[in-house]
Amino acid sequence: MRITYRLVDEPRPGGLSHLVVSALWPLLALMLAGAWAGWAWLVFNSVAMGSATMRKEVFYAVAGILGSCLIALGLGWLLANNLVGREGMRYLVVVPTVWKLYCGMRIYYTQSDSQQLFEYVGGHTRNGLFVLIALVFVGFQLRSKLTDLFFAVVLF
Q: Is residue 71 in some structural domain?
């Protein structure tokens, strides 16, 4: 009988482990390209790394999406019922931005611990600069074609 010792918080990399990047790159994608790119990349990075905290990271991504939807609906309701004018809406648009950054930072801090362990046990991370540039370009293209306020608040 063979007994193996495994750390509980040690990442379990899979077949996509060669695509792991530092958690900083997806966080920058969240800030520069939009929440759609940042959260998707952070979750993909977690899966590729085999992060021990993957469930928590996916939870924060889903909470970010659902929270953004609720905030967008609330802002639309306030605007539709004339409870807030266009001038006041400029200030309230900060709320979804702060929510998205909060969820993104929670994922970043959670994932960076697993990423450091991933590198310690021999995993290698790639440079995500070119993916970030491509996502920023795609984000600008999507943002210019998006006319619905709800999707603009949720995705960006």
A: yes
Question: pLDDT tens, 82-98?
Answer: 898 878 888 998 999 99
Asked if 75 and 93 count as a contact pair (C-beta separation under 8 A), the reply is yes
Encode 71-99: b = buried (16+ Cβ within 10 Å), e = exposed.
Answer: bbeebeeebeeeeeeeeeeeeeeebbeeb
Q: How many domains does the chain have?
A: 1
Range of the domain at 142: 21-41+52-155
Q: What's this model's pTM, rounded to 2 decimal places?
A: 0.85
Alpha-carbon distances of 150 from 89, 95, 144, 153, 156, rounded to whole Å: 13, 14, 15, 5, 10
User: Mean pLDDT, to the nearest integer, of 62-68?
Assistant: 95
Bridge partners of 21, per DSSP, are 126
Q: Which of 27, 16, 24, 25 is nearest to 51 (CA)?
A: 16
Q: Say what the pLDDT of residue 122 is.
A: 81
Contact 149, 76 (CB under 8 A): yes
